[in-house]
Amino acid sequence: MKINLKQIFDIVGESKKFGYEIGTDELEGVKGFTFSTPVSLEGRFYNRAGVVYLEYSAAFEMLHTCDRCLKEFSKNYDLSFEHIVVPSVSNSDNDDYIVADGESIEVNEIALTDMLLSLPTKVLCREDCKGLCMVCGCDLNEKQCDHLNNNEL
Ligand SMILES: [Zn+2]
Ligand SMILES: [Zn+2]
After folding, report:
1. Predicted structure pTM score
2. Which listed ligand is nearest to 125 at the C-alpha?
3. Residue 140 lies in a domain
4. Where are the beta strands (DSSP E) in the chain?
5. Considering every ligand atom, which ligand is closest to the CA of 136?
6. Domains in the chain, number
7. Domain annotation covers residue 136
């Protein structure tokens, strides 16, 4: 969703709240990740002493495949982020800042980038998942075979 920041940039002390969902149809375009719910965003922009901040949280559920036993499972996330927003690129390009496109900003893009950067690349269905037997392929969480396994990641 595009949010207009003109007032926020212009008026010290001004703030603007937002809360909406990124639908699953838009999330289908995100490569490598499967969302099982829409992403619920809630946050605000505010101008503190002339500096504009964005703080928000993203809540969603994601479908993962366990890296050890290949079982599918879903996991809930509730992530929080904070950024400084500037109206245009002033000097060098600084990754710590988010640059608004003129007077408005596309929050979906920021949120998806933040989320994907903070999601783990390797996920286990549970911390002590025993994985699959390297020899016979059985799920070692459910049964024990006679093969010797070393499933350390
Ligand atoms: Zn597992
Ligand atoms: Zn086995």
Report:
1. 0.82
2. 1
3. no
4. 2-4, 15-22, 34-35, 39-48, 51-65, 72-86, 97-99, 104-106
5. 2
6. 1
7. no
